[in-house]
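Q: Could you predict the 3D structure of Olfactomedin 4?
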Amino acid sequence: MRTGLLCPLALLFLLGQTTGNLEPLVPGPSSSSFLDSVFVSNFISGLSSNDSFTPSPGSESQSLSNFTGFEDDHGTCHCSVTLPDTTFPVQRVERLEFTAHVLSQKFEKELSKVREYVQLISVYEKKLSNLTVRVEIMEKDTISYTELDFELIKIEVKEMEKLIIQLKDNFVGSTTIVDQLEVEIRNMSLLVEQLETLDKNNVLAIRREILALKNRLKECEASKGENVTVSPPPPAPGSCGHGGVVNISKPTIVQLNWRGFSFKYGAWGRDYSPQQPNGGLYWVAPLNTDGRHLEYYRLYNTLDDLLLYINAREYRITYGQGSGTAVYNNYMYVNMYTSQNIAKINLNDSRVEVTQTLPDAAYNNRFSYANVDWQDIDLAVDENGLWVIYATEASTGNMVISKLNDTTLTVLDTWYTRQYKPSVSNAFMVCGVLYATRTLNTREEEIFYYYDTNTGREGSLNVVMPKMRERVQSINYHPFDQKLFVYNDGYLLNYDLIFNKEPK
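A: Sure. Here are the predicted structure tokens for Olfactomedin 4:
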């Protein structure tokens, strides 16, 4: 409905439209006095009495209703006419116009938010790109990174994670791009955590070890006045004057192997020579990505060189198989590819000096360790020299231990155990005693079995061995350092062995 004031001529026009009698009501030059004197005067007098106007029967349009009028002191006519909805829905149009205006304002507001989010996404895409470059540099570089570097990166990643959550809560429409960014940021966060645990120069691990030593020194200082029972000193390096392994330290993460994440299988350690027990070089021998072929290995004169990837001597061979490699007295001993032969390699020139067949040994993945393929023949070193751990068809897969002549590779003596080799995750020798491990879970191994070649006795142990990754590919023991060198899914780990101080 629309109510307004109409002049007489406009009112006459409406009346004419309503009644269908347009001609008589339209003023012309000849009818002006008649309209002014007769019709308008009578019509206004009718309006002042609040009468309603009703068209004659048979009119083509709906009637006008609720109209009033009056003449003011100056003789001006004031009329108010109410039109029916069917004539023209003015109020509805006004409501639609108002609603459209409100919706337009809301749309502009939401559109401004979208523009703001698009700008923020662009900014954080650049940040993500810069972070990716920085992480790649950190992954490939050999310099040390402190905890502060990692914390700064973590803060930036967390800021991006907060923005993504805000975008997901407020963004209307397709969220494909936002979901992709969320996945990339989550992957970036995981990669930073992996790099932090890698710590190529072992800076964080060394700091934690120093802190632990400081705490122990404080404890010793606090208890120096108390009566403490004096325990016997630990066995001398390279000595067997102890009662065997009773415990093991937490692992020290040295670094990732020099070939990278993809090279999960291999071995590493330190050369042991009875003539120069503390002067051996370090060696790292990762297998190819097939987990079988030993093709490249590196030698380092010092641990610092190994940590910094400097002064390395790299060699290539074409006949190594499995991760049962050992180094003794400046020679490397490996299982030859697709055979039961053992090769002796001179580390000065990477030349094979001796090859020898290991009698009756199963090979080519017949009785390898659990979770580790192609390690049917596992070479080991301890205080007594060179050993080989394997299985035969006659032993029905149980572990066999043979002492080797390190010069000719002939078998000097052999012992047969009752431990099934494929149920063992790995093994090592200490003072003529075989120690076997098994997997407890993804973060723990257990030294659970021993066989003493000195007495022929065997039995069970319960020494929990923490690890960084799920699978242990090889374990090598160094008699002078009294450490285990463990190759754990591509990472190089160190453990200190703890012996029973009372000799057997």
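Q: Anything worth pointing out?
A: The longest helix spans residues 90-140.
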